[in-house]
Amino acid sequence: MKFSIEKKLAGTLARAGTIETANGTIQTPAFVVVGTKATVKSLTSEQLRSLNAQVVLANTYHLYLQPGTDIVEQAGGFGPFMDWHGPTMTDSGGFQAFSLGAAFGQQVSKVATGKAPMQNIDLEGLYSNKSNPLAKVTDEGVLFKSHLDGSKHLFTPESSMLAQWKLGADMIFAFDECTSPTAPYDYQAKSLARTYEWAKRCLVHWNKLNAESEAGLPEKIPQEFRRALFGVVQGGRFQDLREQAARDLGSLDFDGYGIGGSFTKDDIGTAVGWVNALLPEEKPRHLLGIGEPIDLFEGVQAGCDLFDCVLPTRIGRHGTLYTHDGKIHIKNAKFVADFAPIEDGCTCYTCTHHTRAYLAHLFRGDEITAGTLASIHNVHFLLRLVEKIRASILDDTFFEYKKEFLEKYSR
RNA sequence: GCGUCGGUGGUAGAGUGGUCAAUUACAUCAGACUGUAAAUCUGACGCCUUCGGGCUACGCAGGUUCAAAUCCUGCCCGACGCA
Fold first, then answer.
1. Tell me, what's the pLDDT at A215?
2. Would you say residue A115 has pLDDT above 90?
3. A227 and A210 in contact (C-beta within 8 Å)?
4. Measuring CA to CA, which of A51, A143, A175, A353 is 20 to 30 A from A338?
5. What is the mean pLDDT of residues A26-46?
6. Is the CB of A110 under 7 A from strand B?
7. What is the pLDDT of residue A131?
8. A70, A91, A149, A338: which one is catalytic?
């Protein structure tokens, strides 16, 4: 992998650039579509190509459990397995330490909502084993109970590197602990220290795997074809922890950085800015799991190059669609006889072929095509949005575009 | 015509003297979802309310009872059986 910065936006941390990989080039900032189990839910790889998706991210935990990393390796990696031949990424399984651990059975997500996210949460319950979670974090690694069959599996930095090696992505993430936005300072600090130790172990093991695979080769693999390892910055909502993590990880020889973990809706841009101000400028930064339109503007402005998010496909499947005037719930009664497209002027397949009334009908009838058509529209919406953000950096109209978009979107 | 069974909220279908404005499911109306335990989950769902409660309701009309969706009588309607 090779990252080049094409243009920096004056007065901000934002930049536009390119990431070259063995499987193609990514224009950044870029929105990475999430294909957890080597499929973007409800979409075929052909549809991803039609949408001009640039890069797909799969998940180590899910593919390790099913069908198993060896099967994926035999297929040539998760990209070829799913007939996706562009750039790829895999997440390390670290997020599942959160979603199957502290978040299990709680109504917390990685982005806390509300003005006082630390209140009204049962911390006692969160950090005891009351909710009987499927993941338990120790210094050695994370002990998972499979959500599929209850079987137990230990993920360590080393096993995650090996699994990701087999999954074959161009860019992979270090194994980290994604903490809850409700976790108190003491826990965040303790977890951060652990994630730092894990980061070093990941680096060592990843280098070992690479060295072994290159041993028999006549010459060294050129940088752009080498597979990349991204370190993951944690630290919750605390400035000192975030900055410490950025300095510590920034001094290690990672190819790029992921920014993970906890935020509140209001501090995404701020907290990310703390981090990116300290991370090495010449390496790409991926804001993990973030993808509301507003967050994308904030993240870019704060210096992020890559974003991934399940929202477009998840909320799409559940009947919520993006428009430039804000989100709409297509199942609402007012759309049953609305024969306009989801959004006038939208060039996606769904909008150029189908009406709101048809979508409303498919959703009400529980037809699986509803999820597909909605996902096509939502993914198209976010991909085009980030493309426009990129263009606005290149021609110095970022702030005008941001203002124009947000005024309409959040009106 | 006789006999049997049955008529419950938008639908299906529980309940068979008080704890019933009535289990549940579906439908309906809304909401949530940010490195996917997610084609998922949550709330509302007779009318009114100062949120204490009040009112009207289980085919219709009467009756028994302190109390009826639940028991009795008549009527109307439906299914099946016998003529």
1. 87
2. no
3. yes
4. A51
5. 98
6. yes
7. 59
8. A91
Contact A74, A98 (CB under 8 A): no
| CB of A109 nearer than 7 A to strand B | yes
In angstroms, the CA of A29 and the C1' of B67 are apart by: 73
Helix (H) or strand (E) holding A259: strand A256-259
Q: Is A267 a catalytic residue?
A: no
For A185-239, write each residue's pLDDT tens digit. Answer: 999 999 999 999 999 999 999 999 999 998 888 888 898 899 999 999 999 999 9
Which residue in the list A305, A308, A325, A344 is annotated as catalytic? A308
- How does residue A116 score in pLDDT terms, banded at 50, 70 and 90? very low
Separation between Cα atoms, residue A261 and residue A139, nearest integer Å: 18
A96 nearest nt, CA–C1'? B35
Distances from the Cα of A179 to the Cαs of A111, A197, A248, A303, A381, in angstroms? 11, 16, 18, 22, 30
Question: For the whole prediction, is pTM greater than 0.90?
Answer: yes
Please check whether residue A390 is in contact with residue A306, taking contact to mean a CB–CB distance below 8 angstroms. no
How close are the terminal C-alpha atoms of chain A, in Å? 41
Q: Is the CB of A154 under 7 A from strand B?
A: no
- Measured in angstroms, what separates residue A151's CA from nucleotide B18's C1'? 52
A145 CB below 7 A from strand B atoms = no
pLDDT of residue A124: 43
What nucleotide is nearest A259 when CA is compared to C1'? B35
Continuous H helices in A184-235: 185-214
Nucleotide nearest A333, from its CA to each C1':
B29
SS3 A204: helix
Q: Is A255 considered catalytic here?
A: no
Mean pLDDT of the residues in chain A: 93
Residue–nucleotide distance: A73 CA to B63 C1' (Å): 82
Residue A212 identity: E
Q: List bases in chain B with any atom under 7 Å of a protein Cβ.
A: 27-41
Half-sphere exposure of residue A396: CA atoms within 13 angstroms, side-chain side: 2
Report the alpha-carbon distance of residue A366 to residue A374 in Å, rounded.
13
* φ, ψ at A389 (rounded to 5°): -60, -45
pLDDT tens per residue, range A313-325: 999 999 999 999 9
